[in-house]
Amino acid sequence: MSENYIAEKTFTKEDFTLRALPKAEYENCKFIGCNLSNADLSGVKFLDCEFVSCNLSLASLTKTTFNEISFNDCKMLGLRFESCNDFGLTFSFNNCKLDHSSFYKLKLKKTTFKNSQLYEVDFSECDLTNASLDNCDLLSATFDRTILEKADFKTAYNYIIDPDQNRIKKAKFSQSGLAGLLTKYDIVISQ
User: Fold this and answer.
1) What is the spatial distance between Cα 46 and Cα 81, in angstroms, rounded to a whole number?
2) What are phi and psi of 117, to 5 degrees?
3) Whole-angstrom distance, CA of residue 18 vs CA of residue 148
4) How confident is the model at residue 108 (pLDDT cuts 50, 70, 90)?
5) Does residue 74 contact residue 56 with C-beta atoms inside 8 Å?
6) From the CB of residue 140, how many other CB atoms can be counted at a distance below 10 Å?
7) Distance from the CA of 61 to the CA of which of 44, 68, 79, 147 falls in 20 to 30 A?
């Protein structure tokens, strides 16, 4: 990878499926309405960047750096975040579609997921300590040996979490969400 450095640049409605995003370090950049679907983002560094209304579905994230990144209104289907460079990995998601993505074994302490759709997302062996899943749809999401201590699920819905297979000490759940913790017992809960 060349040592290109791009700072404080805004990319608007760029189609990176036609012309590849240059391999570089991007700092304080904004990507607005860009198409990065199926893009090879391997080795690219994003520092303090913002993605708004972008499509990153099926992008290759091998050794990609995401440090202090916000994703807003983005389509991000089938991403394998565990392939990223995990050093300094920090991001937040607001109003994003992350269906079929994977965060396997990542440390995502204090990560914020807000108003997002996370169908069939893999959180296996992930550390979501103090994470917030505010108004998120977790239909068929996988939680297996996941650390969920102090995580906030109060407004999340459609999740199934086995308390025997995950660490949930001091995690926050709403009364209506308790059914998602009891699914394995095949009991009937009435309102």
Assistant:
1) 14
2) -100, 120
3) 41
4) very high
5) yes
6) 14
7) 147
pLDDT single digits (tens) 73-83: 999 999 999 99
What is the Cα–Cα distance from 186 to 181, expressed in whole angstroms? Answer: 11
Cβ atoms of 109 and 91 within 8 Å: the answer is: no
Can you name the residues that pair with 65 across neighbouring β-strands?
A: 45, 85
What is the Cα–Cα distance from 30 to 50, expressed in whole angstroms?
5
Rounded-to-integer distance, Cα 150 and Cα 161, Å:
14
The whole-angstrom separation of Cα 29 and Cα 47 is 8
* Cα gap 13→3, rounded to integer Å: 25
Alpha helices in the chain (DSSP H): 179-182
- Six-digit token pair at 156? 């999340």
Contact by Cβ (8 Å): 28, 47: yes
Tracing tokens 């807000």 back to the chain, one arrives at: 114
Give kind and range of the element (H or E) at residue 9.
none
Coil, strand or helix at 179: helix
Tokens representing residue 102 in the block: 């994977």
Helix (H) or strand (E) run with residue 180 in it: helix 179-182
**Based on the number of CB atoms within 10 Å of its own CB, is 139 exposed (0-12), middle (13-18) or buried (19 or more)?**
middle
